[in-house]
Amino acid sequence: MKRVGANLLLATAAFAFVLGATELVLRTTHLFGARLAWTRTDNRIGWRFVPSSAYWFFGENDHAIHGRINAHGWRDRERQVVRTDGPCRIAVLGDSFVEAFQVESDSTFCAIAERTLQATWRGAEVLNFGRSGVTQTEEWLLVDEVLSYHPDAVIVLFVPHNDIADIAPSTATNPLRPFASFADGGSPRIDFSFHDARGCRVRRAIGPLKRHSALISLLAQRYNALTRAHRLDALVRHEGDLSGPLTLCTRSPKPRVAAHYALCLRMLGDIAERFRRDGVRVAFASVPMVYTTARINALQQIDESFDPMRFENDLARVARAHGAALIALQKRFEARAAAGERLTWTHFTYAGHREVARATVKFAQHVCRARTGGR
User: Fold this and answer.
1) What are phi and psi of 89, to 5 degrees?
2) Which of 65, 153, 156, 160 is most buried, by CB atoms within 10 Å?
3) Do 284 and 315 touch, CB atoms closer than 8 A?
4) CB atoms within 10 A of CB 252
5) Would you state the CATH architecture of domain 77-191+240-371?
6) Who's near 28: CB < 8 A, 6+ residues apart?
7) Nearest-angstrom CA–CA distance, 196 and 258
8) 355 exposed, middle or buried (CB, 10 Å; 0-12, 13-18, 19+)?
9) How many CB atoms lie within 10 A of CB 205?
10) In sequence order, what are the beta bridge partners of 128?
């Protein structure tokens, strides 16, 4: 009996040693992309970054990106919520194209635009409110938080690649999020029932473990990727192909996609009105889906009515209707691509961030001049 107990103790010790060694290897080498998680669940917007947490990210770029989330839970340098005496403060609201873990923090278009502005207006700020996967629903919910920083202007980035699908529960690749509807007109009605779902309860339970164990975080990453892939496969089979959003650029858009797109645009209009009521100037920008000549020509051969300007033109109409500005990126990207620049991997490349920064600065300069009396 003693021998059985000793063997059990030895086996337990060996198992613990293997687990500890595995954890150490994963933390120090990031084997298989393992890393400690830096997120937590949130009952309003699904999830957030953990303030002041370290991050390690490897994807799209040829090297890993690491740094630290700021004290307020955003991928940005440290900021003061209370307004300083700086000449102007611009907030940028959007998803992973704004968050931009694919490049170093000081290479994001927000950081580049801020440095450019500071060459003329010392103390000018461009605040990064990017979080992967947000749609106009979560952006609508973040308006009050952004307003607490008292920005002079806000730029809202629309991403047709995934915003259109993710804004509705029937097509969202991650259903554990809030969803909006306009049943009776007026302001949107937000459904927060996701935080009572089994999947969200599981996430809340394992979240602390993921932040302290690279092994558990890795297993969760793989499971989540598999779950998303299965859901995407089901959605693709239902739609018949992957070109749902692109059909909006033709004379034959898919009805479900068109309905979800209309919801995105309506939410953008409501976001603009909420900021404007607080005296904040608003600008919209749309990430180009198709901008290379070869790809445009290929799609126009499939459907001659294909118009790569569709999303930007629609956004311009929404902007005019709500007294907002448009930061036009489509033609900029087309011109840069024609000159041989690669502007996106899946997200913006370094060149892409520089080009978006140029467009951002052009808008921000007007804001800074108005704020400083033209100085």
Assistant:
1) -135, 120
2) 156
3) yes
4) 9
5) 3-Layer(aba) Sandwich (3.40)
6) none
7) 30
8) buried
9) 10
10) 92
Is residue 140 helix, strand or coil?
helix
Rounded distance between C-alpha atoms, residue 323 and residue 308, angstroms: 24
Which band of pLDDT confidence, cut at 50, 70 and 90, is reported for residue 22? very high
CA 195 to each of CA 38, 132, 198, 294, 305: distance values in angstroms, whole numbers, following the listed order = 19, 18, 8, 44, 42
Q: Which amino acid is at 219?
A: L
Chain-centre distance for alpha carbon 39: 14
> Under a CB-based contact definition with an 8 Å cutoff, are residues 131 and 99 in contact?
yes
Q: Look at strands 65-68 and 54-57 and give their pairing.
A: antiparallel
DSSP per residue over 325-356, as a string?
Answer: EEE--HHHHHHHHHTT---BSSSB-HHHHHHH
CA-CA distance, 323 to 132, in Å (whole number)? 27
Q: 5: part of which helix (H) or strand (E)?
A: helix 2-29
Structure tokens at 209: 């473990």
Question: If you average pLDDT over residues 255-264, what whole number do you get?
Answer: 95
∠ CA 162-164-167 to the nearest 5 degrees? 100
Lowest mean pLDDT among 80-84, 141-145, 152-156, 326-330: 80-84
> Cα–Cα distance between 57 and 225 in angstroms, integer?
15
Under 8 Å between Cβ of 178 and 190: yes
Distance CA 120, CA 116 (A): 8
Encode burial over 180-199: b for 16+ CB neighbours within 10 A, e otherwise. beeeeeeebeeeeebbeeee
Cα 288 from chain centre: 15
At residue 243, does pLDDT exceed 70? Answer: no
Q: How confident is the model at residue 339 (pLDDT cuts 50, 70, 90)?
A: very high
Q: Is 123 left (phi over 0), alpha (psi -120 to 50) or beta?
A: left
What does the domain layout of the chain look like in residue ranges? Answer: 77-191+240-371
pLDDT recorded at residue 242: 38
How many CA atoms are closer than 13 Å to the CA of 186, on its beta-carbon side? 4
What distance in Å separates the CA atoms of residue 70 and residue 105, rounded to the nearest whole number? 11
